[in-house]
Amino acid sequence: MKARPPWKIARNRISIMGTRGKTSLALLIHNELVNSNARSICKVTGAAPMICIGRKRRILVRRRPVRLYENLFDVEATEFCVMENQGISPYTARTFNEIFLKPQIVAVTNVRLDHVEEFGHSRRKIASSLSYTFAKADLVISGELDKKLNDLMGKHARKVISVLPPDPDLPGSEIPVIGREVLKLYGLDLDVDKYLSMIRESLKWNEKFDVVFYDASKVNDPDSASLIMKWLGDKPIIAIQLRRDRPGRTWAFLKMIKERWVDYRNVLVAGPWSDMFSKKVKGIRLPDSCEGASKALDMAREMGSPLFITGNRMGSFVECLLEKLEVKGIPLIYGTSDLENSF
Predict the structure, then answer these.
(1) What is the C-alpha to C-alpha distance for residues 101 and 50, in angstroms, rounded to an integer?
(2) What are phi and psi of 260, to 5 degrees?
(3) Where are the domains of the chain?
């Protein structure tokens, strides 16, 4: 059977956009729809892309660079399709919405410093670039707290609704509130307090093998990383994994450290440009390997400080670090999602 775009499969289509929490929001909406006996499919991207059909899931194995064409797939006709917009430039994000999904609803989690090479080097420019991608959606629901940024996004949207979480200081608290607003449009309700409790439970230091740590490797923008560190408290050692194909992300994290957005004890850096990065912040460069991961763990033990792992989830240093700490699954804002296929 020839692959079809999702807009030919589902009557109700929801595009998930923004900087942080897209996977968490997409899975939340999909799971709540399925729990209400609605027929739904969901596609998420990022570090662990997968397709969910009802309660079953399949992890996608990529053997080549990410392409928008992976959003062509065949499943039975369904009521809902919830998809994470994987575009990392205004052009690809708009193409996703206009050609692959044609959403009636766009949900924007937040506007933060990531993919700055394509979207812009400030939150204002990113918000303006995002607004260009909404295409012909009937409604945009935004969890961004800054009214000026919501006003910017409203320039190219038919209608924008901004939602305010009950606890704005709690990182990720906008996600269940956006979910409730989306589900309300289909006559469904959401227990926001339940998800807020899950978020609070997941936002705490963990300990394993005499190392206190927090896995924020998927938190790859400095705004979100600093919010989480402030919530966790203490003065951590920040371990940052850099990637050659994300120079803008490197610039953004360098900006966070140099401007001291959060209090910390030391900075460990691995990956491309780590020599330059460590010199500029008087940090420590580590090998992008399991040797570097072992040194980071030894330093955390010796200094008695928690280890905050962030920057990127892809890289030998961070992969070895997470393996040594026995971290598994996809980290969501309200917990984790396993990586096992069910079909």
Answers:
(1) 16
(2) 55, 60
(3) 6-197, 210-324
Judge contact between 82 and 141, C-beta under 8 A.
no
Amino acid at 7: W
From residue 264, how far is each of 282, 306, 322 by CA, in Å? Answer: 12, 10, 21
| DSSP-derived 3-state class of residue 256 | helix
Distance separating alpha carbons of residues 273 and 252, to the nearest angstrom: 13
Select from 3.40.190.10, 3.40.50.2300, 3.30.1950.10, 3.90.190.20 the CATH code of 210-324: 3.90.190.20
Residue of higher predicted confidence among 270 and 50: 270
Least confident of 74-78, 233-237, 266-270, 292-296: 74-78
The pTM score is: 0.93
User: What is the spatial distance between Cα 40 and Cα 36, in angstroms, rounded to a whole number?
Assistant: 10
Determine contact, residues 150/123, Cβ cutoff 8 Å: no
Nearest to 216 by CA among 309, 305, 306, 320: 309
Q: Which CATH class is domain 6-197?
A: alpha beta
Q: At residue 273, does pLDDT exceed 60?
A: yes
* Cα–Cα distance for residue pair 97/104, rounded to 1 Å: 10
Tokens of 22: 């897209």
Q: Using one digit for the tens of pLDDT, what is the confidence trace for 49-71?
A: 889 999 998 888 777 677 777 77
